[in-house]
Amino acid sequence: MSNIVNDLVEDYIRKTLKTNNGILEDMEIYAEENSVPIIHKEVSELLKVILKIHKPKRILEIGCAIGYSSIFFADVLNNDVEIITTERNPIMLEKAYENIKKAGLSDKIKILVGDAEETLKDIDGDFDMVFIDAAKGQYKLFFDIVFDKVKNGGIVISDNILYKGMIASDEFVVKRKKTIVKRMRDYLDYICHQEFLDTSIIPIGDGVAISYKRSDR
Q1: pTM of the predicted model, to two decimals?
Q2: SS3 85
Q3: Are 106 and 132 in contact (CB under 8 A)?
Q4: Beta-sheet strands, E only, within the chain
Q5: What are the angstrom distances between the C-alpha of 134 and each of 20, 48, 61, 143, 158?
Q6: What's the angle, vertex CA 135, arms to CA 182 and CA 62, rounded to 5?
Q7: Which of 80, 133, 137, 166 could be disulfide-bonded to 183 (CB atoms 3.0-4.6 Å)?
Q8: Alpha-carbon span 145 to 108, nearest angstrom
Q9: In whole angstroms, how far apart are CA 82 and each of 47, 75, 106, 110, 210?
Q10: Is the pLDDT assigned to residue 160 strictly greater than 70?
Q11: Strand pairing report for 150-159 and 58-62
Q12: 146 three-state secondary structure
């Protein structure tokens, strides 16, 4: 499909889906006004269905930003969940703490402060779900650190894996993004060709990969 058709389809889907209210709506407005990346509307609705089917009790999120995804996950699951998330940006951290407190979820959402590469190494495992939405060139590194901490039958969801279309075609690759694009392609090739994983790549938002952990490596 052409970019025009893709844009029309995306606009139609977003207008058709239910809108959020309360703190989630406030955060969406803040993100739009301050150019803060949060999950796309159509992606969040897909995740809502997955969460309701899978019913994770323990979620690890890599990339907290202002706390939108973590609060969204907890809201969908009626707060019956423990969420551990990571963030190193002090401005994002301040806003995330504020939003989590405002949502009344300080006892459900814990933020690990610092580089994810370091903070993830010391956490205990047995997660039902991992959501990766951080530095795009580091997805394989994050995956390798956390995979053994995911239960068999658990899922790993990787957001923004098509990276503005650059992953699909060299025609769209910006020169300064070549390394990130190569690493993301390597990551997708890896998670799509492992016997211990079943992976689906879905071209909505900026691309989502959903991986089901069949067994340990």
Answers
A1: 0.92
A2: strand
A3: no
A4: 58-62, 82-87, 109-113, 127-132, 150-159, 197-202, 208-213
A5: 24, 20, 9, 11, 9
A6: 130
A7: 137
A8: 23
A9: 17, 12, 10, 8, 20
A10: yes
A11: unpaired
A12: helix
| Residue whose token pair is 């190569």 | 182
Edge-first strand listing for the sheet containing 197-202: 109-113, 82-87, 58-62, 127-132, 150-159, 208-213, 197-202
Cα–Cα dist 213/217, whole Å: 9
Residues 167, 160: Cα–Cα separation, whole Å: 10
pLDDT at res. 1: 45
| pLDDT exceeds cutoff 60 at 119 | yes
- Strand bridging mode 82-87 / 208-213: unpaired
Give Rg (Cα) of the chain.
17
Helix (H) or strand (E) holding 66: none
